[in-house]
Amino acid sequence: MVPAIREIIDLSHEMYSNMPNIGGQVSFFTTEEHAYLSEITGGKMSMEARMILMPEHCGTHLDVPLHSDPDGAGVDKVPLEQLILPGHLLDLTHKKNGEAITVADFEAAEKASGQQLGPGKATVCWTGADKDWGKPGFAMNRPYVPTEVAEWLVGRGITIFCTDLIGMDDPSEWWWPTHAAWLTKGVCMVQQLCNLDRLAGKEFLFVCLPLNMRDGTGCPVRAAALVF
Asked: Average of pLDDT values for 90-95?
């Protein structure tokens, strides 16, 4: 029997024109307006529509292997089974901005969670960074995951890495080796989640749905948790 869903928690930041972002400009602009169409059609038609201009990697979004690996899978090749799966929340909120999240930190969080790190689950790294989202310097002033820790997590067989951080790499490492450590091994990432504090102590299904974009290197997503 499928357990009843008690709560649905939105894990995605709002998207809007000129939103804080490191991937490029985000713009929503009107192509059709209610007032104009109503006027020129004598009131027979009222409709509004907008054009969206944004990078693949903006806001709450998915990174797929093609982002770092020229032979890696694009968004359209990532099966939904890797994007809809039980969540495993790891509390790393004690880490301060500028601090590395170590293997020992993950081991302690794993023990406290009562679950083992491994395949078949969404590994959700909760740092509390979403509380600083949009503030000046938030993209660089944050905790980070060193490359050797990412490789350790790959060795543990994680299926997908999810976090409220805007970036996982050491801010001083502009070549993003932590990204490559996951993506070149086929481990997708979801970045800039929010509301992870509402998942503490709960059993949930993590859901991350990108557009079915052919050869996409990433995609903004509506991520949510279905709490049992």
From this structure: 98
State residue 3's pLDDT score: 76
Q: Are residues 49 and 102 in the same domain?
A: no
Helix (H, G, I), strand (E, B) or coil at 2: coil
CA distance 62 to 38: 39
Q: Stretch 121-136: mean pLDDT, rounded?
A: 96
Q: Residues 91, 160: one domain?
A: yes
- Residue 78 in contact with residue 213, Cβ under 8 Å? no
Beta bridge partners of 226: 8, 205
Question: Which 3 state secondary structure label does DSSP give 133?
Answer: coil
Q: Would strands 218-220 and 84-91 be described as parallel, antiparallel, or unpaired?
A: unpaired
Question: Do 23 and 81 belong to one domain?
Answer: no
Q: Give the global pTM.
A: 0.94
Structure tokens at 116: 């083992």
Dig out the tokens for 195 from the structure: 């509301």
Do 99 and 142 fall within a single domain? yes
C-alpha span between 164 and 129 (Å, rounded) = 6
Kindly state the average pLDDT of the residues 68-79: 97
CA pair distance 107, 12, nearest whole angstrom? 27
Average pLDDT of the chain is 96
Spell out the residues 6+ positions from residue 50 whose beta carbon is closer than 8 angstroms to its own.
Answer: 28, 29, 30, 31
Same domain as 191, residue 98: yes
DSSP H or E segment with residue 90: strand 84-91
CA 127/CA 143 separation, integer angstroms = 8
Domain contains 80: yes
